[in-house]
Design a protein that fits this description.
Layout (H helix, E strand, L loop, with lengths): L29 H8 L4 E5 L4 E4 L1 H7 L3 H4 L15 H11 L6 E9 L2 E12 L9 E8 L1 H45 L3 H25 L5 E3 H16 L6 E7 L3 E3 H21 L7 E10 L2 E8 L15 H12 L3 E6 L4 E7 L1
Parallel strand pairs: 7-9
Antiparallel strand pairs: 1-2, 1-5, 3-4, 4-5, 6-8, 9-10, 10-12, 11-12
């Protein structure tokens, strides 16, 4: 909206500045009234970056009197802290119509304190048919906001460090528990008890592997490829006597997931790998256990297969036990179904989330 200043008396508190005959008397009209009454720090500048009018709020925040600020060069306001080369260049570009300052953040030095963070917005005015150049420059002090954001970022970083330390301590504690279980398994006389203690050891180690992955990540998510490899390496190191006969191959894509999901997947893999190592390769049979995880969109498939003797059928078929419950319970939590396939030779168990 274009307008011309109206002939009226000077406004109380408004900046008065009469220019040469080619320029309007700004403070005598509506423009001076608007600038003077603004609730935000606001300046009206000419093309040479001289102050034509200043709001009372600007003078209250940055010092000076509206009547004396008018006519001063922007660079000479205060103690000269506004003499910023980049600001002057941006204002010249705005005056020429080649650019506009929109949300430009700068640091304003303070003679007796910490520098302020300011957000500046400048616009060239269409002042009717007058050929002179006029700019409005509004200033928002965002120092408190930036300090609050910095405090928030510092708190988030501190929380992340503490969380990583907690994950590291939990992983160490789980490894201690696993070591105690393994030591107890070596001392007991009952073979059945020994087997149960070793299985418990492996299950604890699967959770500890998740904690180790969480201890080295900053995002709170677990990279499944690293986790599955570490888990299977641990299972192979503690349960495979001859690595020339049996090996575990891990093929996992670049998927990441939460700690809770990782624990569930780890428990399933642990149980299936333990089961394969116990039953798939009797009498020093050679074989390979394949662990894979593949994601397609929102669907994924976790599979553990082997080329062993397969699952007995008929009267020799195994009865559902603790291992079956350990597989089905986390699978249900993940809203996935358990599928078993005869590979002839061998068996593959898949956990499918569609």
């Amino acid at each position: 909206m274009a307008f011309k200043p109206q002939a009226s008396g000077p406004l109380k508190g408004a900046a008065l500045f009469k220019n040469d005959s080619n320029r309007p008397e700004v403070a005598d009209g509506l423009a001076g009234a608007l600038i003077a009454s603004s609730d935000v720090p606001l300046l009206l500048l000419d093309g040479d970056q001289k102050v034509l009018a200043a709001s009372r709020s600007f003078c209250a925040v940055y010092g000076g009197d509206p009547a004396t600020v008018a006519g001063c060069d922007l660079a000479k306001l205060g103690a000269g802290e506004w003499a910023i080369p980049q600001l002057r260049a941006l204002l010249r570009a705005t005056a020429s119509g080649n650019a506009a300052i929109d949300g430009y953040e700068m640091e304003l030095a303070q003679p007796d304190g910490e520098p302020r963070k300011l957000m500046l917005t400048a616009r060239r005015l269409d002042y009717g048919n007058d050929n002179s150049v006029h700019l409005t420059l509004s200033i928002a002090d965002v120092t408190a906001t930036r300090l609050a954001l910095k405090a928030k970022d510092d708190l988030i970083r501190e929380k992340a460090v503490l969380l990583q330390e907690l994950q590291h301590r939990v992983a160490n504690s789980l490894q201690i528990v696993a070591s105690v279980l393994l030591l107890s398994a070596r001392r007991v006389q009952s073979e059945e008890t020994r087997v149960h203690l070793r299985d418990a050891h492996q299950r604890v180690m699967s959770v500890a592997a998740v904690q180790r992955q969480l201890a080295v990540t900053t995002m709170g998510d677990v990279k499944l490829a690293n986790y599955m490899r570490d888990l299977c390496d641990s299972l192979g190191a503690s349960m495979i006597r001859d690595h020339k006969l049996i090996s575990i191959v891990v093929t996992v894509d670049e998927s990441t997931t939460t700690a809770d999901v990782s624990v569930s997947l780890g428990l399933i893999v642990t149980e299936l790998v333990i089961n394969a190592l116990k039953h798939a390769f009797p009498s020093h049979r050679r074989g390979i256990i394949n662990v894979s995880f593949e994601t397609t969109g929102d669907s994924w498939v976790l599979a553990v297969g082997d080329n062993g003797v397969g699952v007995p059928t008929g009267e020799d078929a195994p009865k559902p036990g603790l291992g079956t419950s350990i597989i089905e319970a986390p699978a249900n939590q993940l809203r996935a179904k358990v599928e078993m396939a005869d590979l002839n030779p061998g068996t593959r168990v898949s956990i499918v989330h569609a």
